[in-house]
Design goal:
With 65 residues, the protein is mainly alpha-helical. The chain has a domain of 45 residues: Single alpha-helices involved in coiled-coils or other helix-helix interfaces, CATH 1.20.5. 55% of the residues lie in helices and 0% in strands.
Length: 65
């Protein structure tokens, strides 16, 4: 079984740390997924772009389920 050590905030790239601090302020915490993604800043930022594009930005699709 793999074991992943989550990085501490002070070990993270500055841009990642700032983004996570904003998320912590808005959401009240940081998820384990966000901590894992912080290990790879390039993937962290790319995932953020994808999330915002699919889940936050205006779309032609209705949000009604």
């Amino acid at each position: 079984m793999a074991y992943i050590v989550y990085p501490e905030m002070e070990e993270m790239e500055k841009a990642v740390r700032e983004s996570l601090e904003l998320a912590r302020h808005k959401m009240g915490g940081i998820s384990e997924i966000q901590k894992i993604l912080a290990l790879r800043p390039d993937i962290f930022h790319a995932t953020g772009v994808i999330f915002r594009t699919l889940m936050i930005n205006r779309t032609e699709l209705s949000m009604v389920i």
